[in-house]
Amino acid sequence: MNGTFNGLKQNMERLNIGRIQQVGTRTCESCQGQVPVMERTDRDGVVHEESLCIACDTQKLKSKAPKAEDVKFEKIKRFGEKHQKVPGKLIGKTVAKYVPENDSEKAMKEAIVDYVRNFGNTAHHSLVLKGPMGLGKSHLAYAASSEIRRRGYSVMYIAADDFLSLIKSTFDKKSELTESKIFEMIEQLDLVVFDEIGAEYLNKKDEFESWASEKILKVTDLREDKPTIYTTNYSAPEMEKKYGSIQGGRITSRMMAGAKRILVEGRDRREELF
């Protein structure tokens, strides 16, 4: 306490604020500690009495400071927002705007509605939307991610091809990101939408796209027990043909772990635009 008083006195004298002296002590109402009562005389001769509990004020400042877990969450959330890649055609898409044309598309929409409405409390923590292109899988997957983010969760939407490009960007020595940091964030996000698995293109250096399969397998491995929405046009045999029987089998196995599979059929709506 004497150290606090002496330090305050020296600072006030240095700043030429006026004369200060201790005139007594009091018991702090909050912490019950002994607090000095100070009397300050300003340069106009006016006397001011002050008594602040340094311990309580310090505690108040600490309580207002962001908690470590909150800082970590905001960091993860910003990563998902900064590095997600959303095609322009999906911006503004909502679940309500999707109009199913058959029973399988209706089932897909109902599954998405249930997933969003009960996020984190469904019997299955993930969804796999599988079927030909142009049926609205990406539409609904993105719409789900947008609504879940709006509720305050950390979310990332990214197509497999864009994800591989993000990994490649770390090869640049000037990159602020590292591959390990990307996977660290991917693992910790509340929801990842991994779109169009199998649609990515790479020049094959061997019989299969081994580099791509390793990175995609890593994502599915990290997200095996975490909320994830996958979309793909590929069947299991086609996955194996693209990535090899071992890697392709592992990818599909991890995608399906704890997931509800929705098989979608219908016409390619994109043909209308051709």
CATH superfamily caption of the largest domain: P-loop containing nucleotide triphosphate hydrolases
Helical stretch tally: 10
Give the C-alpha Rg.
29 Å
Average per-residue pLDDT, rounded, comes to: 86
- In CATH's first tier, which class of the largest domain applies? Alpha Beta
What form results from the Cα inertia axes? Answer: elongated
Give the fraction of residues assigned to helices: 40-55%
Q: Can you name the CATH architecture of the largest domain?
A: 3-Layer(aba) Sandwich
CATH topology heading of the largest domain: Rossmann fold
The percentage of residues in β strands lies in: 15-25%
Architecture overview:
The protein is an alpha/beta fold and 274 residues long. The protein folds into 2 domains: 2-64, no CATH class; 68-273, P-loop containing nucleotide triphosphate hydrolases (Rossmann fold). 45% of the residues lie in helices and 18% in strands. The chain contains 10 helices and 8 strands. Strands 5-6-7-4-8 form a 5-stranded parallel β-sheet. Strands 1-2-3 form a 3-stranded antiparallel β-sheet, covered by helices on one side. Helix 8 (210-222) links the parallel strand 6 (191-197) and strand 7 (228-232). It is elongated and about 90 Å long. The protein starts with a helix and ends in an 11-residue tail after the last strand.
